[in-house]
Specification:
- This is Fasciclin domain-containing protein.
- It holds the Pfam family Fasciclin.
- The chain has a single domain, classed as FAS1 domain (Roll), CATH 2.30.180.
- Helices cover 36% and strands 20% of the residues.
- It has eight helices and seven strands; from the N terminus they run αααααβαααββββββ.
Length: 188
């Protein structure tokens, strides 16, 4: 259900960008202006040293999430996750990725595996903020690229699909729940 919303939203954003970009002109003045113009960047290229960091910026600043950041970049999701959101990201640590069979991460980072990588990362992302009352025992949530996750509780500890949420970090565009395991989407 969430995928149906995200794809049209991304297509709309591309259409708006394409319509706002001036058409190419073959004149010398146009060529000169084009060659000196700064390259176009998405939301991730916005420089803002005043606001609280977004989910991507928080992950980039964490030494424990460098593998996740590499995967987000390889999947082309930096701009999407830098947008207003709000998002909930279940963020596996580097140690979580190290638990996967040898060669799995390297294989997923290959360009021909981009779709698989997007699906896995989308299974770690929810559109909306899941915290407090929304992290109650037995609740299930549809993730961005399909599949549901189930929240369970044991005392004060919260788990997603049986994986403990070890820390929670608030970002400007959502929340990050740090987990020590990679969530695997259900088989299609």
């Amino acid at each position: 259900m969430k995928r149906k919303f995200v794809i049209p939203a991304l297509l709309f954003a591309v259409a708006v960008y394409a319509c706002s970009t001036p058409a190419a002109d073959n004149s010398a003045a146009s060529t000169e202006a084009t060659s000196t113009a700064a390259p176009a960047t998405g939301q991730s290229g916005v420089q803002d040293d005043v606001s609280n960091p977004n989910v991507v910026q928080v992950a980039v600043s964490s030494k424990d999430h460098s593998t996740l950041v590499t995967a987000v970049k390889a999947a082309g999701l930096v701009d999407a996750l830098s947008n207003a959101g709000p998002f909930t990201v279940f963020a596996p640590t580097n140690a979580a990725f190290d638990k996967l069979p040898k060669g799995t991460v390297e294989d997923l980072l290959k360009p021909e595996k981009k779709g698989d990588l997007e699906n896995i990362l989308g299974y770690h992302t929810y559109v909306g903020v899941l915290n407090g009352a929304l992290l109650q025992d037995g609740l299930e949530y549809d993730m961005v690229f399909g599949g549901k996750v189930k929240i369970t509780k044991q005392g004060d500890k919260a788990f997603v699909n049986g994986k403990e949420i070890v820390a929670t970090i608030t970002a400007s565009n959502g929340v990050i729940h740090v987990i020590n395991d990679v969530l695997l989407p259900p088989a299609k």
